[in-house]
Amino acid sequence: AGQPAVTLNRKGQGRVVHFGTFFNHENVVALLDALEVADPLQAWAEIPPEIDVMVRSKGDERFCFLLNFTGHPHQVHFWEPSIDLLGERKLDGEEQIPPYGVILARC
């Protein structure tokens, strides 16, 4: 009661997942944990849950839009240097995304 229901059954070389809950952040985290899916951006940056990330790619290049839809600034820690393509500045270490701010970077 009060927890998402996630069951995982192996079938041949695949998996069948039943996910019984409402779709929200906490429940998606439970699903990804159950599936042992790691955050693909974890090696690039530590991104707080308040920041939405959209990833787009073109050829071998991958671009990340970091979107702050809140009225408060949020810190992102970049493990690897990158470039903010909108602000034309280097991103390295701690960076603040202002309220309703956007960073577009290669990731």
Order of helices and strands, N to C?
EEHEEEEEE
Average pLDDT reading = 89
**How many H/I helical runs?**
1
Our estimate of the beta-strand percent is: over 45%
The spatial strand order of the largest sheet comes to: 3-6-7
What are the low-pLDDT stretches, counting only 5+ consecutive residues below 50?
A: none
Give the distance, in angstroms, between the N- and C-terminal Cα atoms. 39 Å
Description:
The protein has 1 helix and 8 strands. With about 110 residues, the chain is mainly beta. The radius of gyration is 17 Å and the shape is globular. The model has no long low-confidence stretch (mean pLDDT about 90).
In short:
With 107 residues, the chain is mostly beta strands. It is built from one helix and eight strands, in the order E-E-H-E-E-E-E-E-E.
